């Protein structure tokens, strides 16, 4: 396949688009794709740049590790060039700190938009912010060398990049607490058995497995996938009876659309 010209390529993030498929690649393997505020802004920008033709977004990473988490330079007094250090942020007011963290979170929120399905292709280490970035996606296909870990608590912090909600939804409160509080590694077999990963394959087969899943997702009509995703995402906020009502309303929309009858 011919290489595609990137729509975005900066700060460790590259976005390419091939009609219905967008690929977001972490491109700093020398630092195991460690994350920084600049990378988070680039990820958020990638989400804003997606054209309307895109149905599936694949998140992948160059090198042996998906992402080793937050770049430890963030905890030094000098921080990142051109950025306030985390120490300086901690000394600021509550409103300023809250707004800064909210900006960082924007890199992690758009992956669950109803109009796309996102797939994280994860190999090697996915630690802390890397784990949370994988959790931000709808689906996870992992190599059998994957090692997930939520190390924030071990550093005296908490996971704050939107990972706690999907983690509890996938594995339940008790296991999520144990994973976060201990900071231990979750490997491929456990990831699949607990629902953290959809499938695990040898590293050499990771790209092929993602291609197969992408093709299967694209085989279904787009509007049906969008309606189904919205139904499933809303389950936690609805009672059983409310979900029945939502199913009926969604199906009525689909039937009218298929019959060419407007609302």
Q: Which key terms come to mind for this protein?
A:
263 residues; alpha/beta; seven-stranded mixed sheet; three-stranded mixed sheet; 10 helices; 10 strands; 43% helix; 16% strand; globular
Overall, the morphology is globular
- CA-CA gap between termini: 42 Å
Strand order of the largest sheet: 1-2-3-4-5-7-10
| Fraction of residues in β-strands | 15-25%
The residue-averaged pLDDT reads 95
- Number of DSSP-assigned strands: 10
**Rg, nearest Å:** 19 Å
Report the biggest beta sheet as strand number plus sense, adding barrel if it closes: 7 strands, mixed
Query: Which regions contain 5 or more consecutive residues with pLDDT less than 50?
Result: none
Share of helix, binned: 40-55%
Oligomer: single chain
The helix-strand sequence is EEEHEHHEEHEEHHEHEHHH
Written overview of the protein:
With 263 residues, this protein is α/β, with parallel strands linked by helices. The termini are far apart. The strands form two sheets. Strands 1-2-3-4-5-7-10 form a seven-stranded mixed beta sheet, with helices on both faces. The protein has a three-stranded mixed beta sheet with strand order 6-8-9. The chain has ten helices and ten strands. It has helices at 37-49, 86-91, 94-109, 129-136, 164-171, 173-182, 188-194, 206-219, 222-233, 240-259; strands spanning 8-10, 13-18, 21-26, 56-61, 117-122, 125-127, 139-143, 147-149, 186-187, 199-201. Helix content is 43%, strand content 16%. Helix 1 links the parallel strand 3 and strand 4.
């Amino acid at each position: 396949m011919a290489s595609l010209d990137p729509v975005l390529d900066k700060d460790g993030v590259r976005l390419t688009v091939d009609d219905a498929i967008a690929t977001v690649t972490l491109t700093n393997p020398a630092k195991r794709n460690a994350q920084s505020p600049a990378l988070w802004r680039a990820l958020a920008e990638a989400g804003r740049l997606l054209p309307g033709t895109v149905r599936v977004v694949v998140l992948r990473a160059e090198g042996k590790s998906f992402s080793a988490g937050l770049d430890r330079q963030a905890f030094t007094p000098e921080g990142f060039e051109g950025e306030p250090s985390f120490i300086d942020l901690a000394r600021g007011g509550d409103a300023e700190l809250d707004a800064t963290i909210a900006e960082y979170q924007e890199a992690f929120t758009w992956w669950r938009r109803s109009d796309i399905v996102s797939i994280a292709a994860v190999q090697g280490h996915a630690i802390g912010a890397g784990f949370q970035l994988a959790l931000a996606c709808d689906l996870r296909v992992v190599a059998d060398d994957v090692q997930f870990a939520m190390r924030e608590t071990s550093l005296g912090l908490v996971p704050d990049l939107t990972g706690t909600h999907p983690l509890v939804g996938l594995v339940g409160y008790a296991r999520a607490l144990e994973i976060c509080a201990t900071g231990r590694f979750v490997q491929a077999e456990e990831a699949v058995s607990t629902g953290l990963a959809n499938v695990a394959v040898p590293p050499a087969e990771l790209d092929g497995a993602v291609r197969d899943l992408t093709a299967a997702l694209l085989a279904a009509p787009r509007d049906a996938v969008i309606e189904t995703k919205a139904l499933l995402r809303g389950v936690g906020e609805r009672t059983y009876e409310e979900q029945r009502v939502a199913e009926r309303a969604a199906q009525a929309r689909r039937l009218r659309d298929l019959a060419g009858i407007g609302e």
